Amino acid sequence: MKHNFGAGPGILPQEVLKQAAAGVLDFNGIGLSILEISHRSPEFEAVLDEAVRLVKELFEVPEGYSVLFLQGGASTQFALVPFNLLPEGGTAAYVETGVWANKALKEAKFFGNVAVVATAKEANFTYIPKDFTDPADAAYLHITSNNTIYGTQLQEFPKSSAPLVCDMSSDIFSRKVNVSDFGLIYAGAQKNMGPAGTTLVIVKDELLGKTGRAIPSMFNYQTQIEGGSMYNTPPVFPIYVSMLTLRWLKAKGGVEAIQKENEAKAHVLYEEIDRNPLFKGVCVPEDRSHMNVCFLVENPEHEKPFLKFAESKGIEGIKGHRSAGGFRASIYNALPISSVYVLIEAMQEFAEKNK
Amino acid sequence: MKHNFGAGPGILPQEVLKQAAAGVLDFNGIGLSILEISHRSPEFEAVLDEAVRLVKELFEVPEGYSVLFLQGGASTQFALVPFNLLPEGGTAAYVETGVWANKALKEAKFFGNVAVVATAKEANFTYIPKDFTDPADAAYLHITSNNTIYGTQLQEFPKSSAPLVCDMSSDIFSRKVNVSDFGLIYAGAQKNMGPAGTTLVIVKDELLGKTGRAIPSMFNYQTQIEGGSMYNTPPVFPIYVSMLTLRWLKAKGGVEAIQKENEAKAHVLYEEIDRNPLFKGVCVPEDRSHMNVCFLVENPEHEKPFLKFAESKGIEGIKGHRSAGGFRASIYNALPISSVYVLIEAMQEFAEKNK
Asked: From the CB of residue B293, how many other CB atoms can be counted at a distance below 10 Å?
């Protein structure tokens, strides 16, 4: 049995995979595959409707927000956010908490001015900067809720008079969030919500249409809202599997229930990292991510052997990102706590052998 | 048994669906689903490499062209083509052969001037306009090789001194094409190449980087080329199924072999439409599509009953597009000629009952 700690595209629930495979052969018993039916068919429209409804329900999305399933990943949103929200000559504020935040702010520069109000670059992004002046005059304040590469996470969101825009790609639906605190939330599906190929956007309608800029149809959130995420052919299968994953989450008790599980998984794993003399954490404890647990070996000579040892136990995907090194165990929603215990046992067994 | 004549997302080969479903459960026996592995894993890199290689082989793509698998559908390309190829103040030439050509030229207006060098709008797009002046000064000449909605197809491509840009979404890999005649070819996968969620782009490298315009990373073909279609997480599963479909096409004998089958399918079906007194074709015979066969009933009262009768024979998806009416039988690569004969027999039986 494999224990999938990969950082993304990441683990999906086994029952979702079974349902998805069945749908590829024969979708809901209609005699056709989900891959070969029209997106305008009542069958797929029901899928998209349910996906949107589940997002609204699970995240308690208030009135006045639209929920979109788009394409292009969070990297496309890095450009679409300023395209739609940053007026010519205006300024957007960014908190730089890692590689993805940095990529986001670079794209904003194509559309206007960027103010980096805080950065943790000098400490290799091992903490979340929290003290900065409220960028009251900015078109928006952009934050990244979880830093997949270095393993930090915002445990509280900043207060801001400018609309808060948040990239939640790697922790969406992992914990309760007050959507009304945000102007826009976006997330690539492939870490916590579904497979690669679709991107969730939750946007406060009243923020749109104010830049004075002409926006091509596919890049304009308003076109996508009017088209109900079907201005053109949507990514049918990625949306289908995301819907199945959201349905699974609801059946598990929703975001509140999964948050408890995620906290328990993170707690036992960090406890072992702190306790085990062979390993050490990377980030400031108060900013540690509950999704991507980054850790190092005290003795660099143990790095390769531990990776190999873990693999022999069926543990997959714990090699750290090339820009961070060490190990990274991604413990997304679909990863059972039993897999975390397998990793902990492997760490203990390895320490026992190497003491 | 269902006979899937849907216009898109359209029919896929049964063996591809079986392989795809197996990959969702356990990809190549690695113990993980294709939906939950890293796009940077050697397993997925091999998939993407093979997909690119198969495109090059099947379409005989010459040196100097790049092959990309992107997201966003052809509708995104409507904007990316002028974003990347139309300099500020420059003019792009468009041939307007239907709804999709019209949508493409509208997006170009966000980036520069548009010259519509020919249109068939006055005849409700039932023919392909062929006489127009070579737009020698244009940044490019844009054409749409097949008109999915009205059922026309360019049987010959125009000569042009400007680079030829072609939307081949609905007939890619259905017939031989001389790629070196084109500056850029693009196609949404979901009609003839795979499921919804990925878009093929074949671009002549030397055309890029000449607009003087700063282009956000995800919209810049050069970024995508440098990233090998992996500047960010690609749509893993849609690319996988496209690769399986291309592999299937190669095993069938490639584009030349499928072209013969497609011509045979179109020939027998149009023959029946012309012969059967209850039905009539929509388009000028010389411009008729070999992919989307549009036809009408002579007596409008026969429309609904024939649709119902066809459905009773397992025939799916032949209702015409809302803007064209009547019937449309899409006979993409994966549709076997046996299904075409089922439709022909239904037409004959219906005519017998209603004479």
From this structure: 26
The Cα A150–Cα A7 span in angstroms is: 11
Confidence of residue B355 (pLDDT cuts 50, 70, 90): confident
| Domains in chain B: ranges and CATH | 14-251 (3.40.640.10), 254-353 (3.90.1150.10)
CA distance, residue A103 to nearest chain B CA (Å): 10
- The dihedrals phi and psi of A241, each to the nearest 5 degrees, come to -70, -35
Cβ-proximal residues to B107 (8 Å cutoff; 6+ apart), any chain: A216, A217, A218, B75, B78, B79, B82
What does the pLDDT look like over A181-216, one tens digit per residue?
999 999 999 999 999 999 999 999 999 999 999 999
Supply the pLDDT for residue B323.
81
**Residue A316 touches partner B, C-beta closer than 8 Å:** yes
How far apart, in whole angstroms, are the C-alpha atoms of residue B339 and residue A21? 25
Write down the pLDDT at residue B322: 83
Per-residue pLDDT at A325: 87
Does residue B199 contact residue B60 with C-beta atoms inside 8 Å? no
In terms of CA atoms, which chain A residue is nearest residue B23? A21
Shortest Cα–Cα distance, A320 to chain B (Å): 13
Instruction: Kindly determine whether residue A196 and residue B233, on different chains, have CB atoms separated by under 8 Å.
Output: yes
CB-based contact B73 A232, cutoff 8 Å: yes
Residues of chain A with pLDDT under 50: none
Given a cut of 90, is residue B325 above it in pLDDT?
A: no
